[in-house]
Structure formats: structure tokens, C-alpha cells
Amino acid sequence: DTAVSQTPKYLVTQMGNDKSIKCEQNLGHDTMYWYKQDSKKFLKIMFSYNNKELIINETVPNRFSPKSPDKAHLNLHINSLELGDSAVYFCASSQVGYRSSYEQYFGPGTRLTVT
Amino acid sequence: KQEVTQIPAALSVPEGENLVLNCSFTDSAIYNLQWFRQDPGKGLTSLLLIQSSQREQTSGRLNASLDKSSGRSTLYIAASQPGDSATYLCAVGGQGAQKLVFGQGTRLTINP
User: How far apart are CA B101 and CA B90, in angstroms?
Assistant: First the structure.
């Protein structure tokens, strides 16, 4: 069983389009994240949700809107895609709180290419 | 603002050698430190997690150490194998927020 899964794996689209990336975790974790890995392979956090509540929003353009329908899912919707949005987007999850390790588990990534 | 640096950016060694990867961070007020492995075109695989109260963690041929006061961590790989070739990423978890701050990684190549 895949612990953290993302769909789609690859996404090619044109500038100006709106697209969504889905993430699901079956680890029973209460916190989920979105990270962006740019062309230089640098990974940076975008958002974090704890029990469906947004707790981290790292100065990401408001064209990016995360949505968490339940603890096991965190989707990322991107409006009006720009060339600079081309990157690999990783979803991750962890269990936080007392006696939790906070260890983060990552999904396989979604490679977004905007043309 | 936490900054994480990994040196060297790339490392190539012959098979069988022991090696050390370095990670340094600017803010010692961390919750934990996690080492990951990333294969080309793949996701991140967690290798070791060290809590701020710990000095080291071991898993098989891997040993990670943490010195909070000096802002340093090392990943020691014993008896390296070609299958160890990958990019190794160090990430620091800050107190309060759960976000990880990543270094740029060390690209490791083990030559048969």
C-alpha cells in the first residue's frame, strides 16, 4: 500500500489554465504539506494543514489554493498557470503533537510543466 | 530565518569507501532533523530522523549525528555501494511550526 500518493504524476498544460493536484495519505496522520521543488532542485514548503486547518502559508501567490476535505486528503488547485509554476510538487504528511515524532513522509511528486 | 547548507554539492567515491555528508543550519532552536534520499525523478525517502534531544541515530550502514549547539549534522555511510548513488537531503524541523527547511542536497555517486 502506498503511504502518500499523488495524482497525476505528470501534468503538462498551457499558460492561463487552471489545474489541480490531488494527494492522499493512508498513514492516519493529522498534518499534511505541499512542497515545491524548483528547477535547481531546491525544496521549499508552500502550505501545511493540521486536521483540515491551514497552519502554514509561506508567501505563496493566491493563485495557489489548497483544500483539505478531510485529514487524509490535501489537494492543490492552481489558477491562471504561469511559466514559473513549472516545478515538481510534493505532498507530505506527518503526525504532530505530544509523543509524536513529526517525521514527514513524502509522496512521489507531480511534475508540472507549463508551456 | 533558518538556513540549511549542505557541503559538498557533489561527491564521487569508489565503491567500498566510508563517507561523510555534512549539513549545517543557522538557528539551533530546532525540533528535529531529517535526512532523506532522492533518486532521479523520484520522491523523497526518509532515511533517519533525529530529535533535538538526541545525538545520533543509526539504521544499517547509515549513522546520523546531531550537534545542535554548533548547528551541524553529519550522515555517515559505511561500506558504500553503487546503489547508494542518489541525492541526499538534510532538512531541519523548526519548533512550533512543523515545516521542514531543506538544504540543497549532496549528489553522491558511488563508482563500481
Answer: 8
Q: Between B42, B51, B99, which is nearest A108 by CB? A: B42
Q: Which residue has the higher pLDDT, A57 or A73?
A: A73
Sheet holding B62-67, edge to edge: B4-7, B19-25, B72-77, B62-67, B56-59
pLDDT for A60-78, tens place per residue?
Answer: 899 999 999 999 999 999 9
Going by C-alpha positions, the residue among A110, A105, A109 that lies closest to residue A26 is: A105
B24 DSSP β-pair partners? B5, B72
Separation of CA B1 from chain center: 20
CB contact under 8 A, A103 and B34: yes
Strands (DSSP E) contained in chain B are: 4-7, 10-14, 19-25, 30-38, 44-51, 56-59, 62-67, 72-77, 86-94, 100-102, 106-111
Q: Say yes or no: A96 contacts chain B, CB-CB below 8 A.
A: yes
Place B42 in a pLDDT band, splitting at 50, 70 and 90.
Answer: confident
- Answer whether A44 touches B (CB < 8 Å): yes
Task: Tell me the pLDDT band of A14, cut-offs 50, 70 and 90.
Answer: very high
Q: Which residues of A1-20 are buried (b: 16+ CB within 10 A; e: fewer)?
A: eeebebeeeebebeeeeebe
B5 touches chain A (CB under 8 A): no
Distance from the A70 Cα atom to the nearest Cα atom in chain B, whole angstroms = 19
Mean pLDDT along residues B12-31: 95
Q: Does A105 touch chain B (CB under 8 A)?
A: yes
